Every structure is written in C-alpha cells, then in structure tokens.
Sequence to fold (290 residues):
Amino acid sequence: MNDPLISLSHRKPEPEKSVLYIVGTPIGNLDDISKRVINILKNVSLIACEDTRITRKLLNHLKISNKLISFHKYNSLKKSEFILTKLAAGNSIALVSDAGMPLISDPGDLLVTIARKENFDVICIPGPCAAIAALVSSGLQTSKFTFFGFIPKSTKERNKILEMISNNIFSSIIYESPKRVSKLLTDLKNICGGDRKIAIFKEITKKYETYIGNTIDEAIKTLEGLEPKGEYTFIIDGNTSEKKNNAFDKECLKNDLNDLMKAGLSHSAASNYLAKKSGFSKNEIYNLVF
Fold:
C-alpha cells in the first residue's frame, strides 16, 4: 500500500503498485482520450470494465493488449472482493465504464469506498462525461447544478425525483434511454410546465451529435413521430418562478426557525418574525417544524 501522505506531485511514473485508477474513456469520439489514459490502460495489471467486448474494441483501437475482467451492477460485489485482493497483492487496477467517467450512473462506488477504507490509493484519470459536456453546451445555468442520473421507473420514487427537479432552483441533469424519452418529456411537462427551458443532447461528440432545445413543449413537438435512438442527456432549467416556494428557501427557513426557538423565542413568535422577514406566510413557516 502507498503512504497516503505522499504528495501527488512527487509520485513515481504511473502506474504504481496497489493503486485503483478510475479512468475516463471516450463517450463517442475515440480521439477524446489522453496520453495518460493510454499509459494507464497499457500498464496496469488488469482492467475492470462493464462489458469486455466494448472495452476490447477501445483497446484494439489504441493497439493495447491487457487483461480484462467484467465489472457491472450484477457482479460488482463479488468482483470488488477480487479486485481488493489483487490490490493487496501489489497489483494496479484500472476501472472503466463502457463510456465516460466510471461511477457516474455506473457501478463502482462501493469498490472505491472499501478501497479507501483499506487505505489503498484511488486516483482518477479524468476523461469525458456526457453530463458535463451537455451542461456546458446547453446555454443554461452552469455554475450550480444537480445530477439525477436515470430517473426511477417506480411511480412513487419517480414522482419524488420529478418533484425535486420541478422545485430545483439550479439546472437539473438527467440521463434517459431512447425508449423512455417520450414518457419522460410528458412527465416533465406535467410537473414543470411546458414552458420550462430545456436542452436535450444525444450522440454527444459523435458525427451526428444532436441538440434539441428551447422549451419542453418544443422538444415534445420536435420528437413527435420520430424513433429516438441512442442515450439522451437532459438539462432542465432551474425553477425561477417567484410564485413557487422552492425547497431550498424552505429548508433555510426551517433551520432559522429551529435556531430562533432554541434561542428562546416561542414557536409562534419565531414564525411571525420570519414571516415579516421572508415574505412567506406565518402559517407556512410555523408548519415547517412540528
């Protein structure tokens, strides 16, 4: 194992022993890969990947020959144990996804958590990410955003996430498969309104990269009658409506209400004070704490 206090600037040439490398790979255009990524994939002891067939194509393109093992949501627990054993034996391991940054809507978080607890070095080799690529190209707010990944299918969980997106004052990022794009747009219209600004991307970095923008209503009209193909990335504009009491404001008020009550003010007096200060009604604030 490596000393965690060693400065990264004084590391030996990569890859090192007993290091788990989180490696970003191209999301479409194979030219979007760094020399450092090539060096790591070429020289690690083995590469853990979602689909060995897909990663093998990338390695063949780069003229790299290395050992591959599958690592996906169905075997990640068992394979994590195997990888940790290899790390303990001094091997260096690269974790990659089919495309983009591992752990972003892909398995690997448990492996990284355990590796950290076991004091193994975990080093990210940055690469492309569809969420960030879409966000910075969207024309919507980029300084603050929330990443939701793939929206749950079950009604209860799905509605909860969609409500969060509707109230979110920052940009929201969603991934969606082509078969569920139409349903997602319909759900977003029902909860966010058809005039909410949106930017939708598919085939990012590829020859036929596509952008669909402006509003949810316009996106629905654009995709009407078409057969969606490829994975989609949605950027939904933050809720700027003054009429909506967003969750962020209410959470702040709840904290202020608790602080005032701890300081000695009655529930009613504290609610009345914050109502005058914030513009929210006294009853709304009072009901934040039961």
Remarks:
- Residues 247-286 form one domain.
- The chain is about 40% helix and 15% strand.
- Residues 81 and 199 are 40 Å apart (CA to CA).
- The chain has a mean pLDDT of 90.
